[in-house]
Amino acid sequence: MKRSIIYIGIAAIVGLAVGYFLFGNSGTKTMEMTEHGHSSEAGQMWTCSMHPQIMQPEAGDCPICGMDLIPAEVGEDGLSPEQFKMTKNAMALANIQTTMVGNAKGNNDNTLALSGKIAANEEAMAVQASYFDGRIEQLNVNYEGQEIQKGQLLATIYSPELVAAQQELLTTASLKESQPQLYNAVRNKLKLWKLSEEQINSIESSGMVKENFPVYATVSGTVSEVMSSEGDYLKKGQPIAKVNNLNTVWAEFDAYESQLSQFRKGQKINITANAYPSKTFGGQITFIDPVLDNVTRTVTVRATLRNQKDLFKPGMFVTGKIESNLANAETALFVPSGAVMWTGERSLVYVKVSGDEPIFEMREVLLGARNGENIEVTHGLDSGEEIVTNGTFTVDAAAQLQGKKSMMNKIGGKTMTGHEGHIGMQEDMSSDSSGEMMKMEFSNGFKNDFKAVLSAYLKLKDALVASDAPKTSMHANVTLEILKKLDWADTGAMEKAHIHKSIEMLEVIANKEDLENQRTHFVILNENMVAIVSNLDSLEDTLYVQKCPMANNNQGAVWLSAENEIRNPYYGDAMLKCGSIVEIID
């Protein structure tokens, strides 16, 4: 029995010795490698506990506060702090689609496509006017689109002034031998009123004064506007009708700011019309607008077309294509324009970082020239990477909910509300060089008085929801007058910039009863209103920042609401429920 115990003890000692030689040295080596930094995980990132937006591949000091960087935590799912995961079911419901950069189907054949409309050639436009005072007794031009020919009777006018001039002619006709100068002066006066020699001679030979005098067309064309009615009393030079000669028309296209280097006068352009998809019409660029539209960031590019057989009608949609000098499609990276989210300062895309799993991260990119429905990416993406091209805003919403970097929060973390910061496109305008949010300061008086501005603004928003342009104009004017009366003289430059821009947008909305134009300026108004309201700490009621991803040419636009129910001011009944809540301001 004792001998067995001894054998067991000897076996245990031998086992321990063998285990030490087999595993002890490797463990020591592992510890040594760890001490010398050779076993750190590949891809380890370092961050600052005070400034989590700082991410560096090596240890060191925080560039903002100087504190030692610490290893960035990797989530339980193995994702980096900038990455997030969506479920496959959520992707399917939102119809999220991705495209491999460099393999996107599109117009990469080195031609530039533009969308535009046919417009009347204003150089061939004429106004038919009365050359003397009088009352219209009969009007022969009755409707827009009426064809008239040069010499055709436009109207018959009774003119006391012309009656007196005819009587002068008859009187001086008997004195033309003794007072030829007086006679010729009267005839010349009638000629200045566009009476022909034949008409003057007819009056003189008949010896009769005409009470109702005919007015004839001086040009041929199509009536684009009837500017007088029977019974109207016209002053000399007052228009009767506006006439367009449609033998030539303009094809006007909107070119983006980034495309301007591609155009020059005299450049050939091939034009197709939706009405004649199988035909191509050649033209040349005759005009490039020297002024950029500050709202749409586009410039009008125009070509003049011969309108044979009256094929082109003003208002028709057309497409123009030119040979561009963009980089070759094989070397340039083009992505669908719908894949890019634009915040005013930043251009963003979402990259699918795993080919098999729905894992995404936000990426800032630099954009080049637009080519049709595609846009060039000059920095931030590599060929072969996979990006989201449909459902981009749904992916962005998922990033926000998970506290990741997003369009609304470029440093990641919990979305700021209230006086902590403001969201959206204005965050780029209100951050310092380190990327930290800068707080806007307003006086207590301004904060209290701004409640009246908010009340008027919400009525303005409701008028747009109802698609009522006159009421929109009225409430914009009320909001404008209240905002102008507030005391904001002592605020800082950034605060004044937001207020000035809000006033500018309200003035345009108040003066334009064009619903589409009002909604365009409402986009910029909201960027500034949301920035101001997010920095007020004296709100009595909760406000909801809501966003429609389709507004603003699919770039997305926000608005403020006192209710959590979505009622879209950018589309009204057409898409009343389109949108979501992106922030709650208490």
What would you note in describing this structure?
There is one protein chain. It is elongated, with a radius of gyration of 37 Å. The chain folds into four domains: 88-109 and 328-401, conserved putative lor/sdh protein from methanococcus maripaludis s2 fold (Beta Barrel), CATH 2.40.420; 111-121 and 246-323, Beta Barrel (Elongation Factor Tu (Ef-tu), domain 3); 124-244, RNA polymerase II/Efflux pump adaptor protein, barrel-sandwich hybrid domain (OB fold (Dihydrolipoamide Acetyltransferase, E2P), Beta Barrel); 418-585, no CATH class. By secondary structure, it is α+β, with helices and mostly antiparallel strands. The strands form six sheets. Strands 4, 5, 20, 21, 22, 23, 24 and 25 form an eight-stranded antiparallel beta sheet that branches. Strands 6-15-18-17-16-19 form a six-stranded antiparallel β-barrel. Helices cover 29% and strands 27% of the residues. The chain is built from eleven helices and 28 strands. The relative contact order is 0.09. It has helices at residues 2-35, 88-93, 160-173, 180-192, 197-206, 392-401, 444-465, 469-485, 493-511, 515-533, 551-554, and strands at residues 46-47, 55-56, 70-71, 83-85, 97-100, 111-120, 125-129, 134-139, 147-148, 153-158, 212-216, 221-226, 233-234, 239-244, 248-256, 268-273, 276-288, 298-306, 317-323, 333-336, 341-342, 347-352, 359-371, 374-379, 386-390, 543-548, 557-561, 580-585. Helix 9 (493-511) runs antiparallel to helix 10.
